[in-house]
């Protein structure tokens, strides 16, 4: 068990149930092999479109839930954003799916009991519940802050209410909970709970704000980033973002194998989508290399 | 009876004809968590540059019909880190390592060749000619037969004599046969084709190019007919030159198509992003297809489609639909 934990496998999963959760879709898939290797924060990648598809890229999804029933099931929560997710949303019970997982580096969990604030934006909250389970098994106190643009896009409020010591909901239009962003509510939650650590999963702008709050309180923050990936296991090099390493050097880290969980203060959120000039191997200064004009090569 | 799948990349014997394509398996280690790399004919590394490279900004990838556009920009650790960390790991795992190199000038290619010449465990060197030539206004080497030949001959002259030089050609040229012939004249022991043709995609929602770099390399099944055409033309003109075929190979049938067009080695690229086991699956399917057609050796199928109709040595009955 120890050696296999985290090592990804490719399996043909069978869809067990599908359901709508407000603005999102939830798919429970029987995926033996993946479920027993799973740790909170891992994700899976799914081939979409069927065997003769014109869509060659896989789609990556965070895992909402893992259960030992039926030999091991994983539940994916996603929003329809394009043709691939639209195809996935049309799957019915007993359809099969090509899954690879578990992928990525999971959330590190504290050794001793402490107080944790879990911050979720949109369907990013989905990956926080397995983490909350693990934290509570270790005697940690868990507080939730969940937010989205509107009430139907807040995911997991009921489950968070059952699990969390406290739960704070925010919506930008005020249709549920407090009007505003999760970062508006976060400082008081951290202060009231006397939190020791913050975990966050959601859109990049939210992670940036959450990290800023945690840094202000001088407590560690672990963020799970969402970047577009083609493979999910580190070969395509498309899901990079600038991350500061232990040696202080910024590298274009792959969010699939170096992440998706990073220490928040190590991610250069303001530079995501760029190559910072001081990143290792950044263009400029080195004329010999051919600079940023290389083309047609990967 | 199993089919003899051995093949030769120049004089280097490979246990089977299926390899990874440059830039599609990172350093190789990522795939080894799924299967043993030694089961592949060879692992072709991403293109190694002299200095570390951070590559291009994101978004680097866009999905197109049956294809992928990418603008990664040769992200990599540079040759020193590659020799120190990545190459030994490949060798330890028993993989045959074909090292792809990329540079912005002939001098840079030469320096890379010198650095690799004494490195243990290199089976062959693939010269990525689709790099912008900084001494020629950034026009890619592969566009020009003379520039391609200059790079190839300088690498050939620098590299240890027993290491094959594979020239990787781009399809975005008026006359690929001329470039191929020029590379062979320059000393290339084998040719690899095709690199990704240049493409572009615009996101109609944001009304901006889908890639940060604007244009990118198109790969995947969308480019397979282009690859087969290039292979066909070059094999017809230079029948004695070993060719590594690639471009949208996703099944054993696709690999066989490349082999019939003239390839003796087939590299798998974009399919690896979809299926980490793609190489092994394609190898299994290819062997099965050869067996069904009565071949005892893979080598007998190389370039077979060039024979005039009726001259085929095999019974061509009850074959299923073609892959076209």
Automatic annotation (TrEMBL), chain A:
Binding, FAD: 59-62, 84-85
Binding site for [2Fe-2S] cluster: 231, 236, 239, 256
Cofactor binding remark: Binds 1 [2Fe-2S] cluster per subunit. Binds 1 FAD per subunit.
InterPro entries: Cyt_c3_hydrogenase_gsu, Dihydroorotate_DH_ele_sf, Dihydroorotate_DH_Fe-S-bd, FAD-bd_FR_type, FNR_nucleotide-bd, PyrK_electron_transfer, Riboflavin_synthase-like_b-brl
Alphabetized UniProt keyword annotations: 2Fe-2S, Electron transport, FAD, Flavoprotein, Iron, Iron-sulfur, Metal-binding, Transport
Pfam family, one: DHODB_Fe-S_bind
A biological process from GO: pyrimidine nucleotide biosynthetic process
PROSITE patterns with a match to the protein in the record: FAD_FR
Cofactor(s) annotated in UniProt: [2Fe-2S] cluster; FAD
Any one GO molecular-function label of the UniProt entry: flavin adenine dinucleotide binding
Domain FAD-binding FR-type stretches: 8-109
Cross-referenced PANTHER family: DIHYDROOROTATE DEHYDROGENASE B (NAD(+)), ELECTRON TRANSFER SUBUNIT, DIHYDROOROTATE DEHYDROGENASE B (NAD(+)), ELECTRON TRANSFER SUBUNIT-RELATED
Family: Belongs to the PyrK family.
Listed name of the protein: Dihydroorotate dehydrogenase electron transfer subunit
Organism field: Sphaerisporangium krabiense
